[in-house]
Amino acid sequence: MSSHTESHNEVPDRLSSQEREEGAVIVAEDPFADPGMPPHEHRIQDIDERAAKRSERTVALLFVVSMLATVGFIVSYALIPIDQITYIWPFGDVSALNFALGSTLGTALFCLGAGAVHWSRTLMSDVELVGERHPVEASPEVKAQVLEDFAKGAEESQIGRRTLVRRTLYGALALVPLSGLVLLRDLGPAPGDKLFHTAWEPGSLLINENTMQPLRPEDITTGSLTHAMPEGLDFHDHDFHAQIAKAAIMLVRIEPEDIKDQQSADWGHEGILAYSKICTHIGCPAVLYEQQTHHALCPCHQSTFDLADGARVLFGPAGHPLPQLRITVNDDGFLEALGDFEEPPGPSFWERG
């Protein structure tokens, strides 16, 4: 006990009086030495050229699969119809195009990445290097050293020696961007005159969207708003939404003396007027109807159209009136169209006259 006390008290006795007054603390030296880097263990590819060749072929195979998957992506995009539905276990009924594009592009990217990883783990140099911290701005000597290390790394990667890996890598990298280029096809082809034509034809009956029955003049009451579409459209058709987006109309009945535009009156029947209900701003349905003023309001950006005056724009960002559809009554007493819209319906576009 006494020896322990003496050894414990010997340390403070070696401190000067000033150190004792300042409360100096003695920190013991670290008893654990830096073990350093463990000895380097060579990979099988470093000592066996046959193993290196197997790794090279594996990397090349992954790059080739990436190339084939990219070609499959392009072929799928070009040949599979966009509306084709296919049963694929365990996903059920899915879009064949989406499934093909996702699987091929995913395979192309995965194999490209897996090939690069396998290449680096089996063929590139795996010698451990310790880099000391240095100022942010490198000195000329450091820059020269970086260039030298880069050249050495390129040499150790064996990209110059492994020609099979190099060529297949270049092929995979060259083909993968084509997937993005192919997607640009969705920007075309140019619509041509498709925007100028809808499903309305001379003699097309006006079909009530709610009852799916042809409309008669007596079905349209003063102050009401009725939604209609041309006969022949079916909710189950694959292009129904594309057709109705251009052909949808609204019918209003206004007292003939309240109609301000003579052409609108002539294109109607006994005060029944048919206008496109697609707003000419960005295509929202302008179907909020104000009975007293005969104004139609688009709820998206408040564009307001006067249906009693050729559907001209009273307020809002819409650029032109709602196109009117010329209608009449056939021998059976049903409302029918005399042709298509004189102006293309929907939002403005630069080709519009």
Automatic annotation (TrEMBL):
Pfam family, one: Rieske
Transmembrane segments: 59-80, 100-119, 168-184
SUPFAM superfamilies: ISP domain
Membrane topology type: Multi-pass membrane protein
Keywords of the record: 2Fe-2S, Cell membrane, Disulfide bond, Electron transport, Iron, Iron-sulfur, Membrane, Metal-binding, Oxidoreductase, Respiratory chain, Transmembrane, Transmembrane helix, Transport
Region annotation (Disordered) ranges: 1-21
Main location: membrane
CDD domains reported for this sequence: Rieske
Domain Rieske: 246-336
Keyword hit for Metal-binding: yes
Cell location: Cell membrane
Function comment: Iron-sulfur subunit of the cytochrome bc1 complex, an essential component of the respiratory electron transport chain required for ATP synthesis. The bc1 complex catalyzes the oxidation of menaquinol and the reduction of cytochrome c in the respiratory chain. The bc1 complex operates through a Q-cycle mechanism that couples electron transfer to generation of the proton gradient that drives ATP synthesis.
Protein family: Belongs to the Rieske iron-sulfur protein family.
Protein's name in the database: Cytochrome bc1 complex Rieske iron-sulfur subunit
Lineage: Bacteria, Bacillati, Actinomycetota, Actinomycetes, Kitasatosporales
